[in-house]
What does this fold into?
Amino acid sequence: MTLDVTGLSLRDLTSCGGCAAKADASLLRTLRSAAYDQQGNDTLVGLAAPDDAAVTAINETTSLITTVDFFPPVVSNPFEYGYVSALNSLSDIYAMGGLAKTALLICGFPEVLADSEIAACVSGAALACKESGVEILGGHTVRIAEPIFGLAATGYVHPNAIWRKSGMHDGDLLMLSKPLGVGVLLSTRQSSDEAIALEQMKISNLRARNALADLGQAVHAVTDVTGFGLIGHLSEMLGNSALDAHIQLPTQAVLPKALELFEAGKRTSADIRNRTALNRDVLGLTESGFQAAMFDPQTNGGLLASIDPSFEIELVERGFITIGKVVTGSGKIEILSHQ
It folds into this structure.
């Protein structure tokens, strides 16, 4: 039997969608340790330290980026689900400084779902890839209880232009390319809130990547903000460095409707997970709605970059938001009152 989901949301087929479905950071640390043996001579970025994608040396001017990402339905429409899933997968390549080139589809759907709905999901991904200059070469499809969809993608980057999560400098500014709040909007399951979130999730990070690439060596560290929320991904950027991050979100860093929900006490199920998974001191924490945005899981969230402060105006003019700074310290995150 197949089920025409015209009257049934894809999200009704899953318990947790988008990047909110990510396993918590502590489990990922355990799995990374279990998988890691030793780094090969051609491996430039592997399991030795957490990062957004793997990078392998090809020659003196070219390195291969590989990544994989998939998640359960995050929106109701299958075409939009495929479109957002593809962009989210490609984002990891952009976060490494590269350009995406090829992709393989990762498809898992229950038997009750009509073939036309599965095809619509693939069509959405195909359009996102076409717009990004990426060719889909194949894929793998299985039958499972809850839908999942995403890409295994490859791209290229010059060996001297790889961006890492680590590498922040004392005095850097922290710049974010998209506002926060997608997670809480999706959690209401209201069509109006989903529409606001979808508009944000359909923004490719390619443009943000290109803006950062134009700065050259002024870019010191980059990641994309997804399921762990802003604070979780910033914590990964700090790593074991002798640096602190001071965060001061301006009003434009949070989507207005999302802020209304936060202030009303709405939180996603990932909020507690993202708070308890932190393995460093976070100063200045309160229960304010504005701070809740920092723990909100994002799907295809923006790029978070640590840059030379002399380039702040240039990035602001290209859509980035200044959210904090990096100072000498001991690995703490301090949250200041918002501007």
